[in-house]
């Protein structure tokens, strides 16, 4: 890759991740003064549809990973070279910080304080349900991240290369259903970059390690599991009939 290629790749991840964090966290803001806060269903659908928007806008440029979990899974499968992983990570973290920074800029501090007063953490900050232990929270984040990794592997599989028209919708709905299932446990972040930006800006670090270990472990092990058990090398004629076997990830 040229230096310009790396800049374009990183810029794509910055923009895509900023879209995810800005739109997703925007849907968590409570303007009702605590009387009618956004519901669980609304928040989950907002994040899922934000993923859909990001993938639709930038999937053809960088793959629109918008998540270190996805990048780890792609590298484990061999879809991207290891040298590109830091480029993705830097873009995702910068994009998350930029997206959340825009939310803070666009929202009165008095409105954001309502969320902190109601939940003891800032808007969009990751936190584990106090009724479960940190280890149980880690297990939930790992399992739903593992499932998200399997979704990615299935989409990238060469045997699925003619079924990509609806990929943004499928990814968006996958995020939504995983968030609906796990949201009451840990918030179902499944994304270290998305977790890091609100935690840093809001100053909420309790049990933050869960939101790195769970998703990254789930992404790596899901891709390794899929590669070992279900992996299939593409045939020459399959490559000849498709200029981009894996449209969400440029092959190395």
Automatic annotation (TrEMBL):
- Any Pfam family the entry gives: MIP
Specify the domain of life of the species encoding this protein.
Eukaryota
Look up and give the membrane topology term: Multi-pass membrane protein
Recorded protein name is: MIP domain containing protein
Where it sits in the cell: the answer is:
Membrane
User: What is the scientific name of the source organism?
Assistant: Asbolus verrucosus (Desert ironclad beetle)
Where is the chain membrane-spanning? Answer: 6-29, 41-61, 135-156, 168-188, 208-229
Q: Which PROSITE patterns match?
A: PROKAR_LIPOPROTEIN
- What are the alphabetically sorted keywords of the record? Membrane, Transmembrane, Transmembrane helix, Transport
Database matches in CDD domains = MIP
Per the record, what is one GO cellular component? plasma membrane
């Amino acid at each position: 890759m040229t230096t310009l290629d790396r800049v374009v790749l990183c810029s794509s991840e910055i923009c895509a991740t900023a879209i995810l964090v800005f739109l997703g966290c925007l849907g968590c803001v409570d303007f009702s003064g605590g009387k009618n806060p956004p519901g669980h269903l609304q928040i989950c659908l907002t994040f899922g549809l934000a993923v859909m928007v990001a993938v639709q806008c930038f999937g053809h440029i960088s793959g629109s990973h918008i998540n270190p979990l996805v990048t780890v899974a792609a590298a484990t499968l061999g879809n991207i070279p290891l040298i590109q992983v830091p480029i993705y990570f830097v873009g995702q973290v910068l994009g998350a910080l930029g997206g959340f920074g825009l939310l803070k800029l666009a929202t009165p501090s008095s409105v954001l304080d309502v969320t902190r007063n109601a939940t003891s953490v800032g808007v969009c900050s990751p936190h584990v349900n106090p009724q479960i232990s940190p280890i149980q929270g880690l297990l939930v984040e790992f399992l739903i991240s593992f499932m998200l990794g399997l979704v990615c592997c299935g989409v990238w599989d060469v045997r699925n290369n003619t079924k990509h028209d609806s990929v943004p919708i499928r990814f968006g709905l996958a995020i939504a259903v995983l968030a609906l299932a796990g949201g009451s446990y840990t918030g179902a972040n499944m994304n270290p970059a998305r977790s890091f930006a609100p935690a840093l800006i809001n100053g909420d670090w309790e049990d933050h390690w869960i939101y790195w270990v769970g998703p990254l472990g789930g992404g790596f092990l899901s891709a390794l599991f899929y590669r070992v058990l279900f992996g299939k090398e593409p045939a020459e004629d399959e490559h000849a009939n498709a200029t981009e076997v894996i449209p969400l990830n440029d092959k190395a």
